[in-house]
Specification:
With about 425 residues, the protein is an alpha/beta fold. Helix content is about 45%, strand content about 15%. It is built from 16 helices and eleven strands. The strands form three sheets. The chain has a seven-stranded mixed β-sheet, sandwiched between helices. A hairpin with a 2-residue loop joins strand 1 and strand 2.
């Protein structure tokens, strides 16, 4: 209303009547005349800001506990039933067909087109096949490439186990990656992938679905980091609270199997759309994690905050993954050195074979000494090499893989022969240099 402004400027005989009317309205309804509009109204907030403000307003509470740090966020045990998001018969039929096909294709890709070295695979097989009925299984690993699941998971199981879609893992994927449209949503849901929304917290629908699978005695795989590594797998990020909730809020404490892999960043580097072949992948599976000392406090909400338990479980899982990460990096480096050693030995053997030793007066070095064959048969493997086209002899050459060449040189060359060999080499080199000039 502009009545106040009009009165101040002077409205003649109407000023007193308008002021009297304003006082009557104020006394009758006890309201004040608002002259200016608030700067911010509800429509001025964007949806993400309103969602975060609502979340902070509902969860901001101090929950002290003796001898423990206080938590400023309200966490609680959220009970989840066993039948949440139960699949229809049609979905289960498609899963029974699609999961074995994709799983075996991934197994062939990893073991047929790449080289996978697995350490401790019996620990996963024992937990997968021999755990008590109704006992859930939770596997955790580092996240390097977009295809860590299903490629790494499929490489850890025998092909016979990949045929039973009901027993295979459920995993989680962000909605902005795997569920961007109805077609992708249907495809990934048929591959036992659950949607989770980034930033919606540990009590969202996707986490409830994963917890429901655990309560049914199923297998759930989760990446505790929440997203892929930012530096190509060189380091690991901190574990999120979500994995702690899956352990604490489950009706039956799951068996937690950690494993770490190295080399997937070479198969699917960041920015590529198709996996590569001919790469080396090393996987190290750790021992089952002992978390009973933390789970025992999950019903004692008066002394220990649920949020603190989530953090404690996540921290312990993170520490175990970090230890496995250091070990698998060392194993991958040793494996790479072994491969380079083999390549170097093969290259040296080919060079040794192609040298024309007769031109240097060392034709006897190619002959097999008496008794060498039988001794090498028992002690070292013998590698048969093809004859070089440059050699002017027609017999096959047999070289002992370890130590044979060195011992043969020592046996054929005494000091006088060595001096003659050096002199002939100097003479031949001098003649070659003269021809070049």
């Amino acid at each position: 209303m502009r009545a106040g402004e009009w009165m101040e400027r002077g409205a003649g005989p109407w000023r007193d009547q308008v002021r009297e009317l304003q006082l009557r309205i104020r006394n009758r309804f006890r309201v004040a005349v608002v002259r200016r509009r608030h700067r911010l109204v509800e429509s001025d907030y964007s949806s993400p800001v309103k969602r975060w403000l609502h979340r902070l307003r509902n969860m901001w509470v101090v929950n002290p506990a003796p001898d423990t740090p206080t938590s400023s966020m309200r966490f609680y045990r959220k009970k989840v039933g066993k039948a949440i998001n139960d699949e229809s018969i049609l979905v289960r039929m498609v899963q029974a067909l699609a999961v074995p096909v994709i799983g075996n294709a991934c197994y062939v890709f990893m073991h047929g087109l790449n080289h996978v070295q697995i350490y401790g695979v019996e620990k996963l097989h024992q937990a997968f096949k021999q755990r008590p009925e109704g006992k859930p299984l939770l596997t955790v690993s580092n996240h390097v490439a977009a295809v860590d699941d299903p490629l790494v998971i499929a490489s850890l199981l025998p092909p016979s186990s990949l045929l039973n879609a009901h027993d295979l893992r459920w995993t989680l994927c962000a909605t902005d990656r795997c569920f961007r449209n109805p077609l992708l949503s249907a495809f990934f849901h048929c591959l036992k992938v659950l949607p989770v929304s980034r930033g919606d917290g540990v009590y969202q629908k996707g986490m409830d679905s994963a917890l429901s699978k655990l309560n049914n005695g199923g297998w759930v795989h989760i990446f505790p980091e929440g997203s892929r590594s930012r530096d190509g797998g060189r380091t690991m990020a901190a574990a999120k609270r979500g994995v702690g909730r899956l352990v604490i809020d489950a009706d039956t404490t799951p068996i937690v199997i950690p494993f770490v892999h190295a080399g997937m960043q070479e198969i699917m580097p960041i920015g590529t759309h198709f996996p590569k072949i001919g790469k080396n992948v090393t996987v190290l599976i750790g021992d089952p994690l002992f978390l009973d000392d933390l789970v025992v406090y999950k019903d004692d909400s008066q002394h220990v905050s649920t949020g603190i338990l989530y953090d404690a479980v996540s921290t312990r899982i993170e520490q175990q993954l970090q230890e496995l990460k250091a070990q698998v990096d060392r194993l991958a480096a040793e494996q790479e050195l072994e491969i380079r050693d083999v390549d170097n030995r093969d290259c040296a053997t080919r060079i040794w074979q192609q040298v024309d030793w007769e031109a240097f007066g060392m034709q006897n070095i190619l002959e097999e000494p008496a008794g060498t064959t039988s001794r090498a048969t028992h002690n070292h493997p013998i590698q048969v090499l093809e004859q070089s086209p440059k050699s002017n002899f027609s017999r096959s050459i047999k070289l002992v893989d370890e130590g044979g060449i060195v011992s043969r040189i020592r046996g054929f060359m005494d000091p006088s022969e060595l001096m003659g060999f050096a002199a002939r080499g100097l003479f031949i080199n001098g003649r070659i240099m003269d021809e070049c000039h």
